[in-house]
Structure to design on (1048 residues):
């Protein structure tokens, strides 16, 4: 017999306070039954003696101090999981949203997960080819990595994410199982539809599970969505041995939901009103990527966040950058120039790439080539700012070559079609063609041997 | 009356009308015996911060005081281990609980089953004072662990075991103090992590910590026993720099604290250090390294403790007369843990929500660095290198600013350098080391007598270049007079050929001070010869056209550490190039 508590003591935003509770556990899941028969669920966020503060996932609309009965569930929030989740769409708390019946749970998993012991982790080294030159060559994605896309409103991050999902494959992989977990937090309905349609069109939908919280859905549900999705990802990876690519969009909406909830709870705010524990909270999401030693399967994360006002120092991209293993930054001026994918090369970085590229993985010259492309492209930025002051004609010959290199690099190397899948050798060769627009003496980051081997002396095909 | 849980708010537990709990006492919370620490005592509400996840705790569960503050367990077996923030052995936990970290569990920090070969160096009747050694254990290939009397004890040995194999918890010695009390000693001792271990005397800091990194050793040196701050935004290379120092610096023991950082990074350190060979001892790097990993998704309160656990272990080895270097990556995460807990306690926040006591906590921590004469008259040191992760790479934020006050070396990492893949991305203009002049005598004696002059010359050139670049940015470099063009070109050589260092290149990843000096000497000679050309009213571009600048830039790859005489050839070539220009 489950005991129900009648009525409430206080309601404040998404929080309700219940007195006289006995035996409640911290973080316990509770269910609230309204007199009209609807049910909601919530979580205990604070206990003081017999007083419990409960966060209601679906919001408190329609709840009064009298019309509600609350029951404790006896444990933390768990999500139902089985292999059947592939090909399904759920809401932000894991209930079916596609009109199909609820799944039969093989396992109930605590959505909060546990930290992976650093000793048990395996250092990610397997390179994932995305078929996108800018990513494969300059900020290589590694299996088990968390590599966010820092974007802005109106930039083509969704297209890029879809292209990565469609084209991603492991070098030399044959029979490994691959799955996509997609978490949408506070996205517009058409964005969710776009992803669904793209997955269906490319025939991968039976490997995809979607957890969708739309922008009109309750914010508390939004704070749960990534945790549900990652529990599913961990289940698929470590129990069912899938290699899981987890796309989460939009982390900015998630953080804003967290801020809204934190302020309703009366917590002391940190920077820009976000709670002081935003870093720990984001870490508890991002750190769930990884590989466990001796277990087939992996979780690779591609979170997408829109930088408010394109400001990379805003707390959300800033804290994300401190946790993630690199970032792919989209650049509005490239987008304006009609370049897709508009990847801003200089601030983009993959921390794990150094161990996953080079001989035996991609090609011996990869590291040197990417370092050289970075430093030459950085020089292009300097030359451009100089040119904007003194005019292009006044530049020295070398500087003019840099300008030319910059243009070609952006339009031929960065730019590619949304369905163009370049393999890594193609991308690397293209990179060398770009470098060969510069005199050899400018290429100080590559060894003379490599220069000898890969520098393209004849530039006929580029002189169009 | 028992103490029982009244309130639960994240990691903070409230106890009503608590009995006999004292400040900073360690307490075991709940049925699972989660480790907690008393952080506030009042007649009504006493607060305990719990170092583990509190989900699932119930009101009314019991709290058991341990009667002691949170302690580190010190003894043989620490080196080569990996611990969490409260010194639980992570590899033992992985064996027992699997890949995910679970809660509770009674773990001894050290392996209590392993038998160590112990040699006793004192006998019955010997007087023993705090910090003095009574036995030794060969802990790893390269480290001898001295078994010392805990610092606060003194007495005469009444019983002592014979040389042989013992476990860390075996009774090996009994002393009687002047009040006639008998105290039993084992190979391990406990020490409260928040209390600095005492030493006899603080010594001046006049020996450099050689890291093999040119920008650090030559331009911004740090002495053994010093403290350095390493601030930088994400992607600027804090962790890379810390790893490089941990791998190559000439300390005897490295304590690497991963405080609220990435799990994969700790795995990388673990993998890499066990496969790398320490160039000084020829043994595995792991046999001089202690890792403390409290990754960002592990409980926040333990993150706060991890820094103290690390420095207490560092002081323990310092007391044996070792030079210890501690890397803390990152102290900002530690400060954020303070802020998070302070917020839960509803304390009045100061700047950016950080508690007002942030500066004093930082000061207490960095003051534990130092070079000391130990109780046994050995000399040991603890050097602290604290990474700082400023929000938005803005160095004016409170953690960076306060860290700056308590460290005397400031190695500022610069994002724009990192974008250009100039590594280590330490900005030579923003950074400083107040220790430079203190270390000149050492460099003069052990490297070369003209080292200070060369150092000053190079620093001055870099500063001048920085000013000239302001002009170049506006009007281009072509309009500068020849002497200034020379400065720009030589500074380019310094930046690319000297300051930039390739961690992935076998020859370049570690460079001896002698080689660093010789490189400086070549570069300064290049500048002097360039001046000779310009003084003779020949265009600087003629000198540059000889290709000598590019040649000097590449010397870091061309001259192996065992063929330093090759630098003489560079000097000759530079002179020849200048002569060639003047002759035409």
């Amino acid at each position: 017999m489950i005991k129900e508590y009648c009525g409430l003591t206080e309601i404040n935003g998404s929080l309700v306070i219940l007195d006289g509770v006995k035996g409640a556990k911290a973080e316990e899941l509770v269910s609230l039954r309204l007199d009209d028969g609807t049910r909601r669920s919530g979580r205990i966020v604070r206990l003081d003696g017999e007083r419990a503060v409960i966060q209601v996932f679906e919001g408190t609309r329609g709840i009064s101090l009298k019309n509600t009965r609350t029951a404790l569930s006896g444990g933390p929030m768990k999500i139902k999981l089985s292999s059947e989740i592939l090909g399904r769409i759920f809401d932000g708390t894991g209930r079916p949203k596609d009109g199909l019946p609820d799944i039969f749970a093989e396992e109930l998993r605590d959505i909060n997960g546990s930290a992976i012991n650093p000793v048990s982790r395996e250092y990610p080294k397997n390179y994932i080819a995305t078929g996108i030159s800018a990513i494969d060559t300059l900020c290589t994605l590694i299996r088990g990595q968390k590599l966010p896309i820092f974007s802005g409103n109106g930039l083509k991050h969704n297209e890029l994410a879809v292209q990565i999902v469609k084209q991603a494959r492991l070098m030399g992989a044959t029979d490994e199982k691959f799955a996509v977990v997609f978490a949408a937090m506070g996205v517009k309905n058409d964005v969710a539809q776009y992803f669904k349609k793209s997955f269906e069109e490319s025939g991968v939908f039976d490997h995809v599970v979607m957890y969708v919280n739309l922008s009109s859905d309750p914010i508390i549900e939004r704070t749960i969505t990534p945790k549900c999705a990652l529990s599913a990802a961990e289940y698929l990876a470590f129990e069912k041995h899938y290699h899981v690519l987890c796309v989460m969009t939009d982390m900015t909406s998630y953080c804003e939901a967290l801020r809204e909830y934190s302020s309703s709870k009366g917590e002391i705010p940190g920077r820009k009103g976000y709670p002081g524990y935003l870093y720990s909270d984001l870490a508890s999401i991002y750190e769930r990527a990884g590989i466990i030693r001796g277990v087939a399967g992996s979780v690779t994360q591609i979170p997408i966040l829109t930088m408010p006002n394109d400001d990379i120092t805003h707390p959300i991209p800033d804290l994300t950058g401190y946790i993630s293993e690199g970032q792919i930054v989209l650049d509005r001026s490239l987008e304006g120039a009609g370049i897709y994918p508009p990847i801003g090369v200089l601030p983009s970085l993959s921390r794990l790439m150094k161990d996953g590229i080079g001989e035996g993985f991609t090609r011996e010259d990869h590291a040197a080539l990417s370092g050289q492309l970075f430093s030459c492209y950085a020089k292009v930025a300097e030359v451009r700012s100089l040119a904007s002051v003194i005019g292009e004609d006044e530049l020295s010959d070398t500087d003019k070559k840099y300008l030319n290199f910059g243009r070609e690099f952006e339009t031929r190397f960065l730019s590619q079609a949304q369905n163009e899948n370049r393999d890594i050798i193609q991308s690397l060769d293209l990179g060398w063609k770009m470098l060969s627009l510069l005199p050899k003496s400018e290429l100080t980051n590559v060894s003379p041997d490599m220069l000898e081997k890969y520098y393209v002396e004849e530039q006929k095909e580029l002189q169009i | 009356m028992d103490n029982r849980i009244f309130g639960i708010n994240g990691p903070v537990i409230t106890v009503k009308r608590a009995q006999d709990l004292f400040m900073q006492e360690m307490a075991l919370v709940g049925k699972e015996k989660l480790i907690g620490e008393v952080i506030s005592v009042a007649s009504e509400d006493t607060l305990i911060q719990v170092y583990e996840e509190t989900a699932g705790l119930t009101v009314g569960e019991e709290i058991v005081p341990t009667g002691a503050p949170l302690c580190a367990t010190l003894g043989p077996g620490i080196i080569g281990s990996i611990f969490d923030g409260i010194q639980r052995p992570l590899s033992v936990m992985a064996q027992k609980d699997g890949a995910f970290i679970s809660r509770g569990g009674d773990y001894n920090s050290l392996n209590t089953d392993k038998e160590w070969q112990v040699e006793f160096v004192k006998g019955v009747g010997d007087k023993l004072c705090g910090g003095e050694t009574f036995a030794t254990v060969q802990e790893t290939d390269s480290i001898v662990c001295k078994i010392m009397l805990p610092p606060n004890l003194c007495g005469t040995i009444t019983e002592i075991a014979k040389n042989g194999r013992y476990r860390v918890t075996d009774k090996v010695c009994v002393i009687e103090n002047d009040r006639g009390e008998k105290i039993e000693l084992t190979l391990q001792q406990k020490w409260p992590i928040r209390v600095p271990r005492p030493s006899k005397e603080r010594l001046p800091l006049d020996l450099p910590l050689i890291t093999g990194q040119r920008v650090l050793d030559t331009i911004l040196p740090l002495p053994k026993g010093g403290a350095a701050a390493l601030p930088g935004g994400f992607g600027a290379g804090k962790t890379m720099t810390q790893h490089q120092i941990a791998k190559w610096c000439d300390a005897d023991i490295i304590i690497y604290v991963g405080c609220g950082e990435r799990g994969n990074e700790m795995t990388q350190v673990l993998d890499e250090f066990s496969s790398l060979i320490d160039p000084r001892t020829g043994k595995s790097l792991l046999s001089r390294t202690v890792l403390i990993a409290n990754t960002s998704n592990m409980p926040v309160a333990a993150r706060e403790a991890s820094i103290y656990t690390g420095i207490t272990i560092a002081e323990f080895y310092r007391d044996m007369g070792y030079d210890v270097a501690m890397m803390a990556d990152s102290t900002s995460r530690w400060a954020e843990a303070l802020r998070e807990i302070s917020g839960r306690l509803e304390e009045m926040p100061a700047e950016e929500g950080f508690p007002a006591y942030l500066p004093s906590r930082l000061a207490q921590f960095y003051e534990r660095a130092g070079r000391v004469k130990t109780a046994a008259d050995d000399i040991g040191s603890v050097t602290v290198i604290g990474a700082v992760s400023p929000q938005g790479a803005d160095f004016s934020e409170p953690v960076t600013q306060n860290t700056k006050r308590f460290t005397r070396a400031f190695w500022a990492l610069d994002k724009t350098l990192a974008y250009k893949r100039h590594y280590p991305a330490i900005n030579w203009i923003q950074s400083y080391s107040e220790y430079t002049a203190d270390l000149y005598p050492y460099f003069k004696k052990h490297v070369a007598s003209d080292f200070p002059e060369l150092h000053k010359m190079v620093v001055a050139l870099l500063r001048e270049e920085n000013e000239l670049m302001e002009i170049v940015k506006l009007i281009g470099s072509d309009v500068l007079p020849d002497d200034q063009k020379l400065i720009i070109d030589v500074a380019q050589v310094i930046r690319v050929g000297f300051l930039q260092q390739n961690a992935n290149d076998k020859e370049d990843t570690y460079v001896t001070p002698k080689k660093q000096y010789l490189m400086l000497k070549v570069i300064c000679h290049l500048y002097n010869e360039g001046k000779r050309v310009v003084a003779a009213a020949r265009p600087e571009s003629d000198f540059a056209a000889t290709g000598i600048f590019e040649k000097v830039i590449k010397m870091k790859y061309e001259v192996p550490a065992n063929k330093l005489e090759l630098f003489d050839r560079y000097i000759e070539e530079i002179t020849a190039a200048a002569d060639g220009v003047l002759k035409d």
Notes: The mean pLDDT of chain A is 90. The longest helix of chain A spans residues 366-390. The domain at 85-355 of chain A is CATH 3.40.50.12240 (Rossmann fold).
